[in-house]
């Protein structure tokens, strides 16, 4: 009886189907099951959200729109502090209102930390030297960020706003 049972699988067409079925089941068994995060969501979705947030952060040039001291005085557009973060190298570059600046950074979905910053030492237009110092100070104290529409808001460890930057090329709300 057992021989009759096994002989039905030895028929060439059945043997092919059996082999293919085993192969498909073997591949399915070896594939990993997506992990769930603490909220019970697929980890893949969280990675996509992180990736999108980082793509926006690193795929844009950000220009300062509000002086750090909270004053309503406009910033000279030609000397406006600005940043660009390079996702591939983990480096940032831009200007602080007087000098070109560059350095390293680390970022994830909510945290952002700038490493030691290097800058050129050019003469500064009177009045812009405080903008330059305040910009550098804000970067050194940044530990987190928040994206709101076309705005990047740099935050300190207490969650207080240090600096507001707008995506270059976007217009201010009316």
From TrEMBL:
Superkingdom: Bacteria
Keyword annotations of the record: Signal
Keyword hit for Transmembrane: no
Pfam families in the record: META
Matches recorded under InterPro entries: DUF306_Meta_HslJ, HslJ-like_sf, Hsp_HslJ-like
Domain DUF306: 57-165
Gene3D superfamilies assigned: 2.40.128.270
Region forming the signal peptide: 1-37
Keyword Signal among UniProt keywords: yes
PANTHER family: HEAT SHOCK PROTEIN HSLJ (PTHR35535:SF1)
Protein name: DUF306 domain-containing protein
Source species of the chain: Alkanindiges hydrocarboniclasticus
């Amino acid at each position: 009886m057992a021989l009759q049972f096994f002989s039905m699988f030895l028929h060439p067409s059945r043997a092919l189907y059996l082999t293919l079925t085993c192969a498909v089941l073997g591949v399915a068994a070896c594939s990993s099951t997506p992990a769930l995060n603490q909220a019970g969501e697929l980890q893949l979705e969280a990675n996509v959200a992180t990736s999108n947030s980082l793509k926006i952060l690193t795929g844009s040039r950000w220009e300062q729109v509000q002086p750090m001291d909270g004053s309503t005085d406009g910033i000279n557009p030609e000397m406006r502090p600005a940043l660009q973060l390079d996702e591939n190298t983990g480096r940032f570059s831009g200007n602080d209102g007087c000098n070109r600046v560059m350095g390293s950074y680390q970022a994830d979905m909510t945290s952002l930390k700038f490493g030691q910053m290097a800058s050129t030492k050019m003469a500064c237009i009177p009045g812009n030297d405080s903008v330059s110092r305040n910009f550098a100070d804000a970067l050194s104290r940044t530990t987190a960020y928040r994206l709101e529409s076309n705005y990047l808001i740099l935050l300190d460890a207490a969650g207080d706003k240090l600096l507001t930057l707008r995506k270059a090329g976007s217009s201010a709300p009316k």
